[in-house]
């Protein structure tokens, strides 16, 4: 249990910092800023860039999904597990657009922690509070120990 608490403590040291040196190269590209993290909650902010947009110059659904999946993955790591957990599904409802330059927050909450499966809910909101997307995801325990990956 001590090592699991260390995972959360490592993340707490990153509050207010850019998340651009994490193990996820795709997540690094997003250049989010960690705002909050607890054992069952995480919030990261992002600024929409032109590279994140579709031809209509609004946030691409795939990039929004990447934001959500990456935030849930970090939150799940901080929630603690001896084993790597991976997404087995990600259900996203896109509810409104986001334009270049807008600041977004992705918040994810651990709804259920099980011995093999963790269920998360997440939302993307604009600074105005308007909902951009909502999602749910299940993470399943693999047979790969985090210590084997260097964590």
From TrEMBL:
Coiled coil: none annotated. The keyword Cell inner membrane does not apply. Keywords: Hydrolase. Pfam families: 4HBT (PF03061). Residues 58-132 form the Thioesterase domain. GO terms for molecular function: fatty acyl-CoA hydrolase activity. InterPro entries: ACOT13, HotDog_dom_sf, PAAI_dom, Thioestr_dom. CDD domains: PaaI_thioesterase (cd03443). Belongs to the thioesterase PaaI family. This is Uncharacterized protein (TIGR00369 family). It comes from Algoriphagus antarcticus.
């Amino acid at each position: 249990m001590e090592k699991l608490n260390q995972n959360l403590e490592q993340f707490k040291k990153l509050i207010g910092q850019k998340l651009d040196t994490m193990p996820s190269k795709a997540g690094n590209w997003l250049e989010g800023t960690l705002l909050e993290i607890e054992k069952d909650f995480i919030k990261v902010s992002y600024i929409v860039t032109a590279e994140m947009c579709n031809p209509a110059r609004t946030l691409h659904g795939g990039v929004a999904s990447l934001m959500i999946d990456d935030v849930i993955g970090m939150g799940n790591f901080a929630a603690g597990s001896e084993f790597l957990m991976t997404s087995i599904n990600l259900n996203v409802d896109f509810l409104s657009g986001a334009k270049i330059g807008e600041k977004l927050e992705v918040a994810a909450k651990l709804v259920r922690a099980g011995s093999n499966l963790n269920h998360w809910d997440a939302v993307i909101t604009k600074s105005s509070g308007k909902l951009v997307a909502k999602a749910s995801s299940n993470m399943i325990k693999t047979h790969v120990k985090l210590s084997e990956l260097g964590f």
